[in-house]
Design a protein that fits this description.
This protein is 34% helix and 19% strand. It contains five helices and seven strands. The longest helix has 15 residues.
């Protein structure tokens, strides 16, 4: 199981996701470009004292990510086809989350294996990125018996 962020816009969200991945011992991939400078210094500052995921991989763009990814791609989207409680995760899934400002483009939607939506109350748009990652990752780990003991 791993998390992949597609061109994240907000450094603080990346920091929260890095902490989440470190706490659950889950790898993190970042598809660039980001909406902020992603230097080694910025990564250290973003992670603060929370630590970083065991494995953090940066991809220069969507195409370079696609050439290396071998996992089933599960996109979390507000345009999802399957409600989160109804989706069956597998231990090797790659959970993909789009930009805070724009999600993912149509070509990414077309390339994924599955699309999942987190059920929301009516008249609200979406959760914060880090909150969505936490909800999705917890459910995926719970279903696959991957939660830390």
């Amino acid at each position: 199981m791993n998390i992949t962020l597609y061109q994240p816009d907000i450094a603080q969200n990346l920091g929260a996701v890095m902490r989440l991945c470190a706490c659950f011992n889950v790898d993190l991939d970042i598809i660039e470009p980001c909406g902020f400078p992603l230097t080694a210094k910025a990564l250290r500052r973003t992670a603060m004292d929370y630590g970083t995921p065991e494995k953090l991989i940066r991809h220069k763009d969507w195409q370079s990510f696609q050439t290396t990814n071998q996992q089933r791609l599960v996109l979390f989207t507000t345009k999802g086809a399957t409600n989160l409680p109804d989706f069956k995760f597998l231990p090797g899934d790659c959970l993909l989350f789009g930009r805070e400002s724009a999600g993912v483009p149509n070509d990414v939607h077309a390339a994924v294996d599955s699309r999942v939506i987190i059920p929301l109350a009516h008249n609200v748009r979406s959760f914060n990125l880090a909150t969505s990652v936490a909800i999705g990752l917890y459910e995926a780990l719970r279903q696959t018996n991957g939660l830390p003991q």
